[in-house]
Amino acid sequence: MPAEKEIDPSESLECFIAGTVRDARKQQGWRQQDLAAKVFSSTTRISEIENGDPPDLKLGRQMDQVLELNGKLTNLLRIRDRVAFRDYAQEFLRDQARARTIHEFSLVVPGLLQTPGYARAIMQLADPDGRTDIEASVRRRAERQAVLDSPDPPWLWVVLDENALLRVIGSKQVMWEQIEWLLKATERPCVNVQILRAGSSAIPGSVSLLTSPTGELTAYTEGFSTGRYMAEPADVDRFQRIYDRLHADALGIDESQGIIRDALGKHDD
User: Fold this and answer.
1) Residue ranges covered by each domain of the chain
2) Is 53 a residue whose pLDDT tops 90?
3) Is the pLDDT of residue 84 over 60?
4) Fold for domain 97-266?
5) pTM score, two decimals?
6) pLDDT averaged over the chain?
7) Rounded CA gap, 101 and 146, in Å?
8) CATH superfamily of domain region 13-79
9) What is the pLDDT of residue 225?
10) Can you name the residues that pair with 43 across neighbouring β-strands?
């Protein structure tokens, strides 16, 4: 079991969570093993939490209840997850902007190929309370797309779930404009889009594989509110294999063009 160490709550959010749990436990007059028994965990895990390794959300909720923290710990863990997600996303976007090749599987049109209207509608769905500056985010996304207009653009190969073409995001007009733009984008020599038919097996999120100018490989996977950016070869290999299987099941380039054109007509009122 790790020895108890001094914690400076101002050092990081993880340290603040550790101090919150430790102080609440001691206020109850419990030992670490007492708390462990009450939340069906181990004394070692409680020690790790109090030394700066936060619990997952499920254990956090249990600790919230038994320590009578009134949801404070759960809220801290949710904030930590959102901050971690943003950090991962920022690092990925930085590397994406200078990548030599980009391979993506996505359930929606990926950011590099989105129109402003489509991007705005996606962001509004993800932020129903209006807590972020959506217009600023739309502008930043458009600015990142300039990499495809550079003299030496990256090689972009997208496997796109067919439902991304059929589902109405924003409005039928937004979808028509987005699909028309997607067709124009595929006229670029550096952009390839293959459609994964709606009845095919897929994963519940996106996968992006980047190759840097010096050959390093990285992988990024994203769900609705989680993201992970990886450089470890074992992690990258795993997501490369996932992408390869999705790519193998996708339609060819010419067939995919036909599916995209058909989808355009379905949104043309």
Assistant:
1) 13-79, 97-266
2) no
3) no
4) Endonuclease; Chain A (3.30.870)
5) 0.68
6) 89
7) 15
8) lambda repressor-like DNA-binding domains (1.10.260.40)
9) 56
10) none
